[in-house]
Structure formats: structure tokens, C-alpha cells
Amino acid sequence: MSLDADVVRYLELVAELGGPELYLDTLERDEALSLAMTPRPARRRAIRPPAAGNEAARRLAVLTDLANRASTCQLCGLHAGRSTVVFGEGDPDADLVVVGEAPGQEEDRTGRPFVGRAGRLLDLLLMSVGFARSTVYICNVLKCRPPDNRNPQPDEIEACTTNYLHAQLAAVAPRAILAVGRFAVQSLLSTDQAIGRLRGRLHAYRGIPVVVGYHPAYLLRSPNMVRTAWSDFQLLRTVLDEQA
Fold it and tell me: What is the model's pTM?
């Protein structure tokens, strides 16, 4: 996707979410729009070169095999009420993996993670620090929707992380992980601490840097927290830039 297309999509997402203001760090709307019309330098080089053909094919094959296994999974009771398994999607060679909690109603219907308003907000926040959705890999801890969007249960988390999530992350081998929502954070970091106590500093999952953030659904309910959440995305950008 070109930078012009990124800017257009960013503006579209702001409009869809009803945002009255557009900001990039301290820029006001008019400043940001003016910047968008200014000739731009060449884009930053890739943080890592694309995987060689054999390696890229291996990653894709592993993810495809896992997705096929998940499509018929009956390791916990959630399979009885699902419409669709929501395995994950995105670039198998991504520098960044976003891990959420569990599919919601729209995700269960479409089979895609982070769609609907929460997904659009995630796209917007990612794009505000330079990540188009097509360049990352996105998944959830749970691959099936819990009834009425209730909290994930320990046995459900155990089944999905042990059989799918750990393998997904190993296949993609990202440079960084963004964990959003309590259950994603606690599952990856093996902790019971609250997000508020964990965010704002760097953590690690099996040697991979992890940035902790609030779930987009929570931010939609608490729009006053979006600015705070945006600082987590800035930390994420810094982590990846320092590896360039």
C-alpha cells in the first residue's frame, strides 16, 4: 500500500469512528492534512529483509496446517456454539503480531479477527504509527467465540494457547508483539497483574519484545483513554525502529 493510500485509509477510519479531531503526536488537524499533501522522503527500509522463498513457504505451510487443524477443533466446549473458527490473518513474514483475547459476534460471523468498530479502531491506531493492517499478523488467544462474549475460561485458554497460539507465534517469528486486553496480556506474560500496572514498559515472550495495550473494545467504551493507549503504540514503533 502506498503512503498516499495509507493517509486516505487513515482519514476514512477517523470518519467511520466519528472522530472530530485528527492527530499525529502534537499535530492538529490542519497541520496533519498539510503534511499529508507535502512531498515525502523515501520510506524507511524494511526492518528485516523478506524471508527467502523456502522460509516464507515454510511459515505459510505451518500456519495453513494449524488453521486446518483449528477448523475442526473440539478440544474445549466452545466448538459447540461457534459459527466459524477465527484462526488469524495477515502477513506470515510480519515484523509485528497483534494478539487479542477472543472473537466477538462479527468475527464469529466472518471468520476474521478484529473486524467491526473495534477492528477499525485497531487499524487506525496501527496506521497512526506506520503499520497498515496488511503488513501485520493478527490473531486472538481463543479461536472460537465464547457465548455472549463472556470472559475466556482457563481450560479454553490452555487448549488454544498450547495447540495453536504458541505455534502461530513461532511460525511468524515477529520482531515484536502487541498484546491487547487482559487475557491476551496475562496469557502471553504468565502473570495476573492488571494492564494498568504492565503497560508503558517493555516485556518479553520467549525472547520477543511485548508491548501491553488496552483492547480496542475497551477504548470504544472509554474514549478518554485513547490518548493514553496511543502512547503504547508509540512505544511499539520505537521498539521496532530500534531494531532497524
Answer: 0.82
